[in-house]
Amino acid sequence: MRPEQWQTFKRAARLQESKEVPMALIIDSPWIPGYLGLKHLDYYLDPELWFQSNLKIHRQFPEIIFVPSWWMEYGMAAEPSALGVKIKFWPDNTPSEYHSLARIEDLENLPPYDVRNDAFMALTLHRIRMHRQRILDQGEILPLVTARGPLCTAAFVRSTTEFMMDLVEKPEWAHRLIDLCTRMVIDWLKAQAEAMGPTVEGIFLLDDIVGFISEEHYREFAHPYLKRICESFPKDWVKIYHNDAGINACLEHLPDCGFNVLNWGKQTDIAVVKSKVGNRLCLMGNVNPLEIGVRGTPEEVRVATLDILKKSGGQGIILSVGGGVSPGMPKRNIEAMLAALKEFNSRRSSH
Asked: How far is 92 from 137, CA to CA, in rounded Å?
C-alpha cells in the first residue's frame, strides 16, 4: 500500500467526504497462489517468491488499495499454533488446523504463550523484519497489523462445535479461554507493530465465529473482548473488523467496540447495513465474492458493483467484495469492478 493510498483509506474510514469512492481488496494466501499459478508451499516457504508475488499484484492493479498491505501470513496458522494447535500444510491449499484442547478444563495446563518466539508467530515476525526495508524501498508502507479475533482463535483451539457448546454448558470456562485468546491477540498485534515500525496506524481483526452466535451471546462473550482489543491501541488508529459470516447479532454494537470499518459478507444487503450503522461505520464491501466475483461474467460483476455503489449513496463506503478475495477470482472480474467504480465516480463528478 502506497502512503497516498493509506491516506485515502483513512479518510474513508473516518467518514470524511470525498469526491471519489476508493476500492480496496483483502488479498492473502487463499487467492494469491492460485491466481499466479503457484504452489501454496512455495508461496509460504520461498521468501523471494512471496515478495515478488505481492509486488507483481501491486503493480498489476496500482489503483486498488490492498488490505492489510503485504500480508505476511501462513493461512490462519499463527494464532492457534501459539496455543499448541496442530497445523497441517498442503501443496495446493491453505493450512488446516486440528484443535488441541480436548477438555476445556485442560486450559489451565497450557504452557504460557510467547508471541515473539512461538510457532508461526515467530516465523511471521522474522519475515516482517526480513522484508520491511525492501517494501519501504518500493515506496510502499505497512500501515496495518493483523490478527484472528479471540472467538475465532478459541474455536481453533477447542474446535468450533465444542466451543459453541461451552458457551452454553461451561460459560465460566469459555470466558477463561476467550480471555486468554484476547490477551494473546493484543500482544500479537503489538509484536507485529514493533516489527513493522512507525508506519503502523491501524489494526485489522478477523473473527467470523462472532457470526455464529446470538445477540445475547455476542453481548456476553464477544463484545467486551472485541472492545478491549480496540481500546488497547491508540484512539486515532484505524480499526477494521472482518466478519463474512452473519452480522445481524453484532452489527449495531460494533461501533461501540471502537471499529471504524466493517468488511462483511454477502448475506446482508448493503442497504440494510447502511440504514443501521452507515453514519457510524465505514462499510467495506460487499460484492458477492463467489457467485459474482469468481463465477460471474464481467458484465454481471459490473451490474453488481454499480448496485452496491448506488445503494451506498457514494459516501461512507470503500468498494470491495464481501470478505476477502475468493480463490479463483479472475483478473477480468477485478478489472470489471474497477471499471464500474470509475463509471460511478465519473457520473458523480459530472453532477
From this structure: 31
